[in-house]
């Protein structure tokens, strides 16, 4: 059976002949925390709404849990997209109770458990209109969790939150993923925060999915390394292994060697020259997460990246 929780094939949606989502193919695997990254207006919400069934695609195919999207598979999704649709005059518990009743659930214990999970007091009579933004977001997440979803979709859940509020949401996402084995899609333009929790990323720009990449692949791409081109790659590798203890490296086409070990380039130069190996180029390659993302999603307007949090 497929391990894909979501599979989008050639999905498109246009408004007034302009593509909000332009023929995208996307796969989200069981257990992923899928960081969906793009600038404002890139098409994140529209894509997520199509997965949830809130917007119908113009074309393409949506598979959920290995089968064509249907009422049963859609019920396995919990989502918080845009606002949570809260009743401002009512308490957290009453808001949960109304949604639970609408879903045909009659489990007061579950409501207490979920409110505890999101660190809200289920006995409090405080109306939601007096909640902070972080409290409202946490309540929205608790409501999304009411049906015990296998897939949780959160659209910009940390937008506008302070660092403490962001940390609480992050810890909750990690708990649900690790303990409850929930697959989670989280869209954001706050790159540094996403990079702390995402296990895979999808980058969207002008409605097109530019790239999907795993955390491990990204880490490799963003590693610093010494790149060089030599005329005898086999001999160079043997020498650098034996003389300088080189262990972490990759050999690429056209006699190109990438060294990830912390090795002094002057030493490399000396040893290769002493052994008659010609070096045609040598430089340090450095690409940080921020530039990697920004190169793909475009520009840096509306995209936050706080390096101190990395
Ligand atoms: N109901 C709609 N009617 C008309 N245009 C729409 C509608 N929904 C989205 N769009 C347009 O589609 C494009 C993608 O919007 P979408 O909300 O999916 O982007 P986004 O990446 O989620 O950005 P944001 O973070 O600003 O919500 C935008 O140009 C937007 O104006």
Question: Any chance you could write out the topology, listing elements then pairs?
Answer:
Layout: E1 4-15, E2 18-29, E3 33-37, H1 44-52, E4 59-64, E5 67-68, H2 71-74, E6 77-80, H3 92-102, H4 108-117, H5 133-144, E7 151-155, H6 163-179, E8 183-188, H7 191-197, E9 200-205, E10 208-214, H8 215-221, E11 225-230, H9 233-244, E12 249-252, E13 256-259, H10 265-274, E14 279-285, H11 289-297
Parallel strand pairs: 3-8, 3-9, 6-7, 7-8
Antiparallel strand pairs: 1-2, 1-4, 4-5, 9-10, 11-13, 11-14, 12-13
Bound molecules: adenosine-5'-triphosphate.
Family: Belongs to the ABC transporter superfamily.
Organism: Amedibacillus hominis
Domain ABC transporter: 6-231
Lateral arrangement of strands in the main beta sheet: 6-7-8-3-9-10
Q: Helix and strand string, N-terminal first?
A: EEEHEEHEHHHEHEHEEHEHEEHEH
Supply the helix-strand structural class. Answer: alpha/beta
The distinct ligands, each listed once, are: adenosine-5'-triphosphate
Helix content: 25-40%
Shape: elongated
Distance, first to last CA:
37 Å
Number of strands: 14
How is the CATH topology of the largest domain named? Rossmann fold
Q: Give the overall pLDDT as a whole number.
A: 89
Family: Belongs to the ABC transporter superfamily.
Organism: Amedibacillus hominis
GO molecular function: ATP binding
Protein name: ATP-binding cassette domain-containing protein
């Amino acid at each position: 059976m497929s391990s894909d929780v979501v599979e989008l094939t050639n999905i498109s949606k246009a408004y007034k002949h302009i593509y909000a989502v332009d023929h995208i193919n996307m796969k989200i695997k069981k257990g992923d925390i899928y960081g969906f990254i793009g600038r404002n207006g890139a098409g994140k919400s529209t894509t997520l709404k199509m997965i949830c069934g809130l917007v119908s695609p113009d074309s393409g195919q949506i598979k959920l849990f290995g089968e064509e999207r249907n009422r049963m598979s859609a019920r396995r999704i919990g989502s918080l997209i845009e606002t949570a649709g809260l009743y401002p005059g009512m308490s957290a518990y009453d808001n949960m109770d109304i949604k639970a009743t609408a879903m045909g659930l009659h489990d007061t214990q579950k409501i207490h458990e979920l409110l505890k999970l999101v660190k809200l007091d289920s006995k409090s009579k405080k109306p939601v209109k007096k909640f902070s933004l972080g409290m409202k977001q946490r309540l929205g997440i608790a409501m999304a969790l009411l049906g015990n979803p296998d897939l949780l979709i959160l659209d910009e859940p940390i937008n506008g939150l302070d660092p403490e509020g962001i940390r609480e949401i992050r810890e909750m996402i990690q708990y649900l993923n690790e303990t409850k084995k929930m697959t989670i899609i989280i869209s954001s333009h706050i790159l540094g925060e996403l990079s702390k929790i995402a296990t895979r990323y999808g980058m969207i720009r002008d409605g097109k999915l530019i790239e999907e990449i795993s955390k491990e692949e990204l880490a490799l791409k963003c590693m610093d390394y010494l790149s060089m081109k030599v005329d005898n790659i086999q001999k160079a590798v043997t020498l650098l292994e034996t003389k300088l203890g080189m262990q972490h490296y990759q050999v690429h086409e056209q006699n190109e060697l990438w060294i990830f070990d912390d090795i002094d380039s002057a030493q490399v130069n000396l040893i290769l020259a002493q052994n008659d190996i010609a070096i045609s180029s040598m430089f340090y390659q450095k690409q940080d997460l921020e530039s990697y993302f920004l190169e793909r999603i475009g520009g840096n307007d509306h995209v936050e990246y706080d390096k101190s949090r990395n």
